[in-house]
Write a structure and sequence with these properties.
Shape: rod-shaped
Number of strands: 2
Strand content: 5-15%
Structural class: mainly alpha
Largest sheet: 2 strands, antiparallel
Radius of gyration: 38 Å
Length: 105
Amino acid sequence: MDELIGQLSPEQYFKWRFFMEDMLHWETRIKLSRLHYSHMEKDIEIQKLKAAIHKNIIKDHEATSKLKKEEYEAYRQELEKQLGVSLDDCAIDDYTYEIKRIPKE
């Protein structure tokens, strides 16, 4: 059996309980703040990873665009060779496929 070493008055008990609960409340708030901060750090980390992925996507798009431009230029040169004319300052009609020189102003 526990040894009785004293007794608090109701006022002392409620004051003691108030301070203890207030202390526990603020300790819990600290834990919540730390969790929130940790969550924010993870969000930042995720955004950095997403940005890195997007940067790689841009590099892939740039590489593909460069390749497509090279393919276009190669085909354009092939057409110019076949037709015996330069396609500079020309337009090709989408319906009749006629090549027309655009007058310079």
